[in-house]
Amino acid sequence: MTDEKLRSENEQISILYVDDEEDLLTLCKLFLERSGEFKVETMNSALQALKSSQIHSFDTIISDYQMPMMDGIEFLKRLKTEGNLTPFILFTGKGREEVVIEALNNGADFYLQKGGDPAAQFAELSNKIRHTVLRRRAESELLESQKKIADIIDFFPDATFAINNEGVVIAWNRAMEVMTGIRKDDMIGKGDYAYTVPFYGTRRKQLLDLIDREDNEITSLYQSLQRDGQNIYAEAFTPALFGGKGAYIWVTGAPLYDIQNKRIGAIESIRDITDRKQIEQALQESEERYRNVVEEQTEFITRFLPDGTHVFVNDAYCKYFGFTREEIIGRRFKPDIPSEDIEQLQQFFDSLTPEHPADIIEHRIIMPNGSIRWQRWSDHAIFNTSGKLVEYQSVGQDITNNKRAEVALIESEKKYRTLFETTGTATTLLENDGTICLANSEFERLSGYSKDEIENKKTWMEFVVTEDIEMMRTQHHLRRQNHEKALMHYEFRFQSRSGKIHYIFLTIDVIPDTLQSVASLLDISDRKKVEDELIAANKEYINLLNQIQTVYYRSDIEGRLIRASNSWALLLGYNDLSECIGRNIAEDFYFNPGDRDKFLEEVYKNGVVSGYEVTLKKKTGEPVVVLTASHLNYNSAGEILGVEGTFQDITDRKLAEKALIESEKQYRDIYENAVIGIFKMSLEGKIISANSQAAKLLKYDTADELIQSVPDVISQVFLDPLTGENARQIIRKTGYLKNFEAQFRCKNGETMWGMLNSRLVKDENGIILYHEIISQDITDRKRAEEALRQANRKLNLMTSITRHDIQNKITTILSFLYLAKEDINDPNLADYCKWIESATKQIQSQIEFTRIYQDIGTTEPQWQKLEPILDRLPITDALVFESDVHELELYADAMLEKVFFNLLDNSIRHGENVTEIRVFYRADHEGITIIWEDNGIGIPDDMKEQIFERGVGKNTGLGLFLIHEILSITGMSIRETGKAGKGATFEIFIPNGTYRNI
């Protein structure tokens, strides 16, 4: 597009110029529109431009950098965020390198600095405008072309995408979204091989990147490569598709051309062929698996015709009969079968019909060496659709050893049954579900039932009294889960058919490699009667044992728990003691099983232990620390039966001891390593204890030296003893001292500034024990504050001198302008003079503001009564002024008075029709809020936060900004909360500590 075409009336370039300087807006518009090539619209703020409905219609946007409320770069960011891609030129007086970098990084097309020769500057600006418009129109045409291509690709049935010549994705159709799970909006515009990540999990070249490469480079990444002109076809496996499951794909890649037949990129289509590949692979694996199964089977596999001609045999068949495959295939091969089995075999084959085509038969064969072997064959007769027999398929195996085992088993069962019947005790064989599958004569006698009534009809639970069933069921299951932990011998109560109760000593175990159990029941009723009499005699002892909190226990020689008090189960979290009896103490109840060996070593060494600490574990696995007193348990013959003893839970005590140790260590670490001085002072002023930092602050080598060297803190440490005594009186009166600043005397004679915080420590009767004091070195801060005050005084002096000189020069300029206007007859020149005069007066106003602003913060804040300040306000008779701030005093900057003078000026100047003003305050737990309220026109909602910014508002725009700055010196803040149309309400928040009532 030529410059002449751009200059034509119909192709006039529209420009938006944004600047807070009205004079520059006018000047730029005049310069750019003189040629007729440009049409310029001006706006004085970025916020005004963003609100404009025409913001998207301009060919170019020119913006200043430094503007109130929103600068040029923030303006650019907002445009990009809202999708406005209009070319953007930053035109400003700021020439810093970081501003240029930030502007270009955020999408500015050009950066131009103000200043220098106006004609050359605006000529350069015009050239940059033309360049951006030409470039953007070319980009738009390219994007439109790419969009058309993308729209066409979007309807392709195969997953398809395209990239431009720079490798950036320009199309990503719906089928691609479905295949990859990635939306078009998340992929369009991405480069650096981002499109390969959904397929391969990493960035690499894809087929469309390789259409101009040699085939050997492509085949390193793809399979089954084919070419058709410039089109390439290939297969590949993509491991990242479908959540990492991967997929086989068929890929087509080709160059991409626009409507002028210009190559603009490349296109690739992808088809998921996983199902086809899986079917092919499954078929191949099935054939291979069938071949392996048949050939590697140890069974004999053969196929033969009705006349006996063999058509297939596997290796096992050949090896078994001692012939090669060639000697059998195609011949009528028949093994040597004993004559007495031939008739049975013939009847078997005759029984195979279309309705009953398969069956199993066992028979003998005579081997070449004359030995007899047993075989089992599974034969299947195959019939055609007419019901004619066409073939047999047979699978056989040698079962000679099984036959021999059956004979041996029969003999073994005869011997076993003889032993089972003559054992002398009631004996049963139990199934896994508890069914009694075998019972001997003695069990018949004990139970009162016959074998026919018992075997495979009754369970062992039917003969056990109700109270003992749960205990026996627990052992029954434990015996099958962990054989070694189950009891082989224990007692239970047996109920016979007549209802009689027998006390039984049970011996039971699982038959190896089965789930069956053999149980031998010895009737010990007579012995139990004697024991019961003994127990009755000691009943009081037993009851006491089960009621005490101390745990009693007894173990056998194998380390199993055989007796315990109920408190054992309660302490270790078991529902009932029956869950614990019979279990191995070390493995089931010790937190560390190896500790049991150390315990037993002590017991066996001394015969007894007392106060021995052991860590047990609860049912949940939690540790329990106990203290035990235990001894060896002997029988009447002096033989060791096990260990007996008691223990008590000391877990809480151990935890408390550990917590106390850790707490004391933590406190000591904090105390000794604190960066602040900490010490205790007696009521007489003597240091009782101190940390190393307290000694370091006062230049003593150690805390001990400080304690011994300072018998009286008030007279020896405080530079002014009266200040120390004042601090002590404050503590005595209030109970504490907060942020108290004073000067202190060090060991070496130097002085330092410190800040103290202190409290009184009392005993439980309220008697004062000592002062606890925390001290901080604030010497550097005090020096910095004094240095800052000195610097501010010097800066104020220099500023006042410079301002005076500038004011003189401004007065001169205004004077000459006045004279010039008197002699000028040209209206245009008169307008120029007015603009110069207006700009000069604004400079004069800003210089005057620096006179006021320079004094903020130069002196220490001070306490000031608010009522006299309000009394000095220039209130006219036409204004009703009410205040309710009696006895209120504020800690504020010396310029506090200007806050209320400026609030009054704001109400009168901007409220337009203000007749009433009220000033009052309210208090809460954080401080007080002073409220200035008028009945004027109020402030619009969209301006409430902006009015406190510099330069915002009518006239100078500095009054409310000055108020905000003065208040912030002592942590105060101001906001406007009134309703537009009903008056302005200014709320000044005064935090605790910066106000008081006098």
- In the predicted model, the low-confidence regions spanning at least 5 consecutive residues are 1-9, 800-805
Describe the strand arrangement of the main beta sheet, using strand numbers. 7-6-11-10-9-8
Shape verdict? flat
In total, how many beta strands? 39
Report the biggest beta sheet as strand number plus sense, adding barrel if it closes.
6 strands, antiparallel
What is the residue-averaged pLDDT? 81
Instruction: Compute the number of helices.
Output: 34
Please tell me how large the radius of gyration is: 53 Å
Strand content: 25-35%
Give the distance, in angstroms, between the N- and C-terminal Cα atoms: 81 Å
Share in helix: 40-55%
Task: Give me the secondary-structure category.
Answer: alpha+beta
Task: Describe the secondary structure blueprint for this structure.
Elements (H helix, E strand, L loop, with lengths): L2 H5 L5 E6 L3 H12 L4 E6 L2 H6 L8 E4 L8 H10 L6 E5 L4 H9 L4 E4 L4 H37 L4 E6 L4 E4 L1 H7 L3 H4 L9 H4 L14 H5 L3 E6 L2 E8 L2 H4 L2 E11 L5 E10 L1 H23 L3 E5 L5 E4 L1 H7 L3 H4 L10 H12 L7 E9 L5 E12 L5 E10 L1 H22 L4 E5 L5 E4 L1 H7 L3 H4 L11 H16 L7 E7 L5 E10 L6 E7 L1 H13 L1 H9 L3 E6 L4 E4 L1 H7 L12 H5 L4 H13 L1 E10 L5 E12 L5 E10 L1 H23 L3 E5 L5 E4 L1 H6 L5 H7 L3 H4 L4 H14 L1 E10 L5 E12 L5 E10 L1 H45 L3 H27 L8 E4 H6 L8 E4 L4 E5 L3 H16 L4 E9 L2 E8 L24 H10 L4 E4 L8 E7 L3 E3 L1
Parallel strand pairs: 1-2, 1-3, 3-4, 4-5, 33-35
Antiparallel strand pairs: 6-7, 6-11, 8-9, 9-10, 10-11, 12-13, 12-16, 14-15, 15-16, 17-18, 17-21, 19-20, 20-21, 22-23, 22-26, 24-25, 25-26, 27-28, 27-31, 29-30, 30-31, 32-34, 34-39, 35-36, 36-38, 37-38
